[in-house]
Each structure stands twice: as C-alpha cells, then as structure tokens.
Amino acid sequence: MTSSDMDYLTIALPKGKLFDHSVRRLAALGYSAKGLSEDSRKLVIANEEKKLRFIITKTADLPTYVEYGAADIGIIGKDVLLEENRDVYELLDLKFGLCRLMAAVPEQFLKPKLSDYAHMRVATKYPHVAERFFHDMGIQMEFIKLNGSIELAPMVGLAELIVDIVETGRTLKENRLIEVAQIAPATARFIANRVSFKMKFNRIHQLVEDLKVLTESEELKCSK
Ligand code: PRP
User: Fold this and answer.
1) pLDDT tens across 17-40, in order?
2) How far is the CA of 167 from the centre of ligand 1 (A)?
3) Choosing a second label site near 216 at 20 to 30 A (CA), which of 63, 110, 158, 162?
4) What domains does the chain contain, in order, with CATH numbers?
C-alpha cells in the first residue's frame, strides 16, 4: 500500500440493482463524490476533500477488487458473495436489495419432485451456488454458465432449469417460469479487504457503525 493509497478510502460500488440504493446510503453519511453515477464513463470518481475514491464495477467482479485490495471496502449482494467465495470480511448486512436465489422451470415442465429433474441442464449466473445446492440434495445435474438473461435458456432449449435471483417475481411471471426450489435469501452486504480493515481501522469501523445506525433506522421506517 503506497502512502497515497493510505490517505484514501476506496469504495467499490456494483453496477445494477444495488447501485442507487448504495449511493444513497453512503451519501446520507457524507460519503459522496461529484459525478458519481452508474452511467458515468469515468470508472474512478474521487472526492479529494474527503479523501474518498469510488470505483464502479461489474457485480461479479466486485469481491475480487476488494479481495486484492484494489478497493478497501464495497457493497455487494450476498448472492454474489456466495458465488464468488472471495477472501473478504463481510462486516454488515445492509438489509436492502432483498431477493432470493432459486431454481425455476417453464410451467409446462413442472414435475412432482426436484429429483425428477436429475441429469438435466441448469442455466445460471451462479454455477457454484447451483452445484452446491444440487450436490447437497444428492441430485446430479449439468450446469451451463451464462452472464445474463437466464430466462431465455429454457425457452430456446439450452437448459431445462434455471438458477437465478428473483426479486419482485416479474421476470418469472413474464416468462412463465415456476419456482421449484428456494436456495437462499440475499441482501446487500458491506465488505472489506482484510489488510485495509487493519490499516484503516478507524475510518472503516466508523463507517460500519454509522451504517449500522442508518440500517436500523431504515428498518424502523419500513416496519411502521
Ligand atoms: C436479475 C435476475 C432476473 C431478474 C429478477 O436480472 O437475473 O432476470 O433480475 O428480478 P425480478 O424478480 O424483479 O423480475 P438483472 O436485472 O440483474 O439482469 P440480467 O438478466 O442481465 O442479469
């Protein structure tokens, strides 16, 4: 870590569903930068006054940036953490972005038991999660890794099943897919690089404490 790296706190933010909410939460605590937007062509956006650097990454890559210390901290979904299995500290459940990992099939393909799908093909962005799940259930399957629009796979005969996240359920409904197994719930998590957590303990610890308070107050607001 250079002295300039030591001066700055580098925060990784994921493109996609969690971006806006992550920016809002951090901004509420004074962690913001001019021009911080998902559409920004600039991928590193700094706030010189507060010695903050934001980097915007593809969701699946975010834990890698944090593991290697290219970012000190980051916000990412538990689904991605389960899939990527990176060596990072998971410091806080931020409790937004609730979704669940699940398996689904086209409605005309519904079978009585999950084991009835044995040896079929599963298309997914989450091959490790999917493999672990079916392995633990004692069901052998074939897995096909895709990078998006997973719902397309069963429509065109690439796979019989999908393993994906569902949030509102709209995508499943629009594509006439039925959930056949729940795998795990997922929310946004605050993660940190192991070395940064020690070297920049005061700054990171303070941010975690502030986020904790904010998360609790948001929860209270939602439950009212
Ligand atoms: C995710 C997921 C589903 C959809 C589920 O895709 O892969 O397609 O969201 O959300 P819903 O239940 O609210 O409809 P994402 O939008 O991240 O894009 P992708 O398909 O390109 O990965």
Assistant:
1) 999 999 999 999 999 999 998 888
2) 8
3) 63
4) 3-97+187-223 (3.40.190.10), 99-185 (3.40.190.10)
